[in-house]
């Protein structure tokens, strides 16, 4: 009978150790997120980029939202989306091109997050 409590006591430190490891990893991820300041930039399918693209980049400006897109930037600065504004917002890609961490296929979810749920024609 003395063996049962010993086994239970041995399993407790193991679960506590796992908790500490989990909390340590979580803390590291949060610190990495704070220092890297990633952002998600999405370009919907348009003539120049027929498949669209989404990429994750680092060193996001504090003024730049986490999810952004040319249409989202136009809405924020101009209040509407126009072809001229989109072209200007696409020029932001030159600034971001050296900070890209990950290139992904077009994400409709990320696009909608950047525009507040609004969709605009190509």
Keywords:
122 residues; alpha+beta; 2 domains; 4-stranded mixed sheet
Strand content: 5-15%
Strand order of the largest sheet: 3-1-2-4
- Per DSSP E runs of 2 or more residues, the count of β-strands stands at 4
Number of domains: 2
Q: Mean pLDDT, nearest integer?
A: 85
Describe the sheet with the most strands.
4 strands, mixed
Quickly give the structural class: alpha+beta
Flag low-confidence runs. none
Tally the helices. 5
Radius of gyration: 22 Å
Give the % helix: 40-55%
The best one-word shape is elongated
Order of helices and strands: HEEEHHHEH
Q: Terminal Cα separation, in Å?
A: 74 Å
Give a description of the structure.
With 122 residues, the protein is of the alpha+beta class. 51% of the residues lie in helices and 14% in strands. Strands 3-1-2-4 form a four-stranded mixed sheet. The chain is elongated, with a radius of gyration of 22 Å. The chain starts with a helix and ends in an 8-residue tail after the last helix. The mean pLDDT is 85.
SSE map:
Blueprint: H1 3-36, E1 39-43, E2 53-57, E3 67-68, H2 70-77, H3 83-90, H4 92-96, E4 100-104, H5 108-114
Helix pairs in contact: 2-3
């Amino acid at each position: 009978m003395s063996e049962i409590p010993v086994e239970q006591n041995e399993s407790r430190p193991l679960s506590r150790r796992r908790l500490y490891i989990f909390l340590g990893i979580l803390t590291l991820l949060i610190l990495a997120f704070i220092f890297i300041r990633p952002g998600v930039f999405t370009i919907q399918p348009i003539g120049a980029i027929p498949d669209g693209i989404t990429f994750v980049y680092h060193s996001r400006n504090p003024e730049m939202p986490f999810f952004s897109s040319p249409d989202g930037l136009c809405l924020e600065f101009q209040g509407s989306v126009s072809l001229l504004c989109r072209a200007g917002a696409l020029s932001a890609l030159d600034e971001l091109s050296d900070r890209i961490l990950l290139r992904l296929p077009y994400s409709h979810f990320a696009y909608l997050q950047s525009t507040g749920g609004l969709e605009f024609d190509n």
